[in-house]
Amino acid sequence: MKTEFLMGNEAIALGAMHAGVSFVSGYPGTPSTEILETVAKRNPGDIYVEWSVNEKAALEAAAGASYAGARTLVTMKQVGLNVASDPLMSLAYVGVKGGMVIVSADDPGPISSQTEQDTRHFAQFAKLPVFDPSTAEEAYEMIQDAYDYSEKYGIPVLFRPVTRVCHSCASVPLREAKGIRPAEGFRKDTSRWVIFPRTSYLNHIKLEENAPKIGQDFSGYRFNQLEGEGTFGIATAGISTTYTREVLHHCGKAGKFLKIATANPFPEALALRFLEGLEKVVVIEELDPVIENALIHLCGKYHLPTVIHGKLDGTVQPAGENSVESVASVLEKFLPVQMPKKPGLPTPPPLPVRPPVLCAGCPHRASFYAVKKALKGRKAVFCGDIGCYTLGNAQPLDMTDTCLCMGADVTMAQGMQRIEPDTLHFSFIGDSTFFASGITGVVNAVYNQTDIILVVLDNSTTAMTGHQPHPGTGVTMMGEVSNCISIEKILEAIGVRSIQITDPLDYAAAVAAVQKAAGETGVRAIIFRSPCIAKIKPAAPVCVDTEKCTSCKFCIREIGCPAITLSGGKAQIEPSLCTGCGLCTQICPFHAIDRKEAAK
Predict the structure, then answer these.
(1) Which residues, other chains included, contact 3 with Cβ-Cβ below 8 Å and sequence gap of 6+?
(2) Residues 6 or more apart in contact with residue 239 via CB below 8 angstroms
(3) Are 242 and 212 found together in one domain?
(4) Domain co-membership, 29 together with 176
(5) Do 231 and 84 reside in the same domain of the chain?
(6) In a domain, 48, yes or no
(7) How many domains, the chain?
(8) Taking the model in full, what pTM does it have?
């Protein structure tokens, strides 16, 4: 058995591959993205891998492959599960043939998400099993078990790693890869695969009957662990188990310890053995009190005198990530915790606040600035979306007034326009998001004859999550050249009559395009097309002519490019950051920034 040093996401991917997965689909989203990318990178050639247009499409495509008997893997982050919830709920009733594991990576913190959403609730809602790994090594083994459970009970299962499991690294012992599991193909059976109300009713009964059986099965599952003795107990789950074990290493006798790796269906028999004889229990978990509520329910159901402490009584913080330090502060209320201090090291100063910012040379900065200047003095609302361009809300641009979820910019602008018809309503959406969830909103706008201006920020990639391909790039995750789907042709087909395409780094042309759109009515679109700086070779950096520079700071106040700084009161270009986009050369009122100086 060989061992590899792997990121958690890599371990999950290899675990699925070693379990015989043959169809992998997903939509990029931190912290899950590297799972699918690892499968693509290590693909021996017999696994089909795709970045789907969105999570719903990914899950439905995988369902088809599973109906044909293939083992499938679907990857997304926790908010992506919202998008996939429609097929998920029905799949729970219909079931699958080939094992299906749906990875929904949760993001406590949140570190890179709009919500702190706990996938374990989705498992309860959909009545599906959920696996909650605590380490990268465990994730590798656990996902292989997940396929076995999926096929044993004929239902999809959820797999819920959190950010610290996804992005931590460990030495993982690997099993021998056995290749993909053969699929027997789709067998027609309308009583099973066609979901009618009567079928749903019967399948619902079957789900409810299976739940306690799976819970009993989980009570003996190897990663659900019970150890220790005494009248005090600690219950944990997921990454919090790792933190808690580290703290307990610095305690004396700690009492009973329960680790729950499968929160749904809850392993009741194991939990009852844990609760036997306990006076107090503290529950440490991320994010919501799922294990805590389950234990409280058991205490009530079986009239147990045990007092359960956790998030509900304020013992554990209600939101955000846990850590070794936070767990220690909780447990020291119950146990003699003595965490070691590192001798001889000074206390580090607090880290400086460093908010996220658009990259130097990012074309989105030029797009926002052109819209801002073209509409100076006019009443306008700017609806934003999920992506790098959400950072358009930061000063000095201040060009993102709303951000709800992917695709909502297009439809929210429509609702606002109906209430404030005297205001210009813009919706900013990226090219990848346009394909993922924007098209429906544009259809709605054209159909209902809404007066909005759609701005597609086309930088030819899915930049925020690591530059994955999408339908507009002409490349698939299998490395094949595909048809490059045209955003403008889609808009034309929908019925958008006014469509302008311009380079946002051509400041004058960009401003003119916005002014033209602002003077029109109905649904009109501007496609600002300029590739992400990570996709192209940068031009030579520009330079400031200090004799012409008047220290007005106009360049800094207007666009906030991180490559522009001050030195001796004069503007200065940091050559290691400058990509030579040229926006600053076009807006300097004294023409003090020039490419010619940079060539000297």
Answers:
(1) 171, 172, 173, 174
(2) 134, 135, 162, 164, 165, 286, 322
(3) no
(4) yes
(5) no
(6) yes
(7) 4
(8) 0.90
For 138, the domain range is 3-216
Token pair 């009584």: residue:
313
Contact between residue 524 and residue 494 where contact means Cβ atoms under 8 Å apart: no
- The token duo for 198 is 């009567």
In a domain, 471, yes or no: yes
The domain spanning residue 429 has which CATH number? 3.40.50.970
Query: CA 302, CA 448: separation in Å to the nearest integer?
Result: 57
- pLDDT tens, the chain, 600 aa long: 799 999 999 999 999 999 999 999 999 999 999 999 999 999 999 999 999 999 999 999 999 999 999 999 999 999 999 999 999 999 999 999 999 999 999 999 998 888 999 999 999 999 999 999 999 999 999 999 999 999 999 999 999 999 999 999 999 999 988 788 889 899 999 888 998 888 899 999 999 999 999 999 999 999 999 999 999 999 999 999 999 999 998 887 779 999 999 999 999 999 999 999 999 999 999 999 999 999 999 999 999 999 999 999 999 999 999 999 999 999 999 988 877 776 677 878 888 888 889 999 999 999 999 999 999 999 999 999 998 999 999 999 999 999 999 999 999 999 999 999 999 999 999 999 999 999 999 999 999 999 999 999 999 898 888 888 888 888 888 888 888 999 999 999 999 999 999 999 999 999 999 999 999 999 999 999 999 999 888 899 999 999 999 999 999 999 999 999 999 899 999 999 999 999 999 999 999 999 864 444
In a domain, 340, yes or no: no
Question: Are 194 and 264 contained in the same domain?
Answer: no
Phi, psi of 8 (to 5 degrees): -55, -45
Domain membership flag for residue 337? no
Reading phi first (left if > 0) and then psi (alpha if -120 to 50, else beta), residue 344 is in left
Is the domain of 99 the same as that of 122?
yes
Instruction: Tell whether 52 and 178 lie within a shared domain.
Output: yes
